[in-house]
Give the backbone structure.
Amino acid sequence: MSFSSFSASVVLGFISFIISSTYEFRVIQPQSQTVNPDGWVSISCEHTAQVTASNVRDVQLKEYRDGKFSRICQRGRQSSCKNVLMYEKNSSSYIFIMFNIGPKEMNSTYVCEVTVVMDQIDKTKTGTPTTLLQSTKCEKMAVHPCATAAPPLPPQSNPLQWILVAGLALMVLYSCVITSFYIRLMNINKENPTSENSTYVEMRKAPPYHQPEPEYSGIRKFGH
């Protein structure tokens, strides 16, 4: 092989590597996820493609069981998602929330599949399957709810608490008596408006006035 042929092969290989690395991206999802005691679980799905939201062609969550993949939720088609709710955080991050997890769902794995448009070419990648784990707080799933915890014992009575309650009751009663007395007093004042701030003066009839008689004792009549 001539030197020119070798150089051309190296250049073509380098160009192919650049093109392939440009189109490469990864889908990231957890390897395992613990199911909550209420029977639901969330699976995050992210991709590393440097594209805008309009270039994200499709996002799906697939279930793998018995050697077959089946789609259980797809972006933009929420009506087709049974017992699954999809939440889009941004153009590169999504969360799938699964409800009513039973033994059949526990025996399956779940894969995120993302399709993006890069240089007018659709590129599809899948993540590492996620395995569901049972909650450590409850070994039973939603189809077999956890045993109901025993109700707490009623609190024991506290003598100090009863003393405070009795004191408060006496204060309320005292306030009611004072208020009632004040209201009654106000009503009496309204009925007898002259009972306050007034002075009673007894009007007595003056004695009759007698005009004094003239004194004639020192006058004598002459000619008698």
Summary: The radius of gyration is 51 Å. Helices lie at 3-23, 103-106, 159-191.
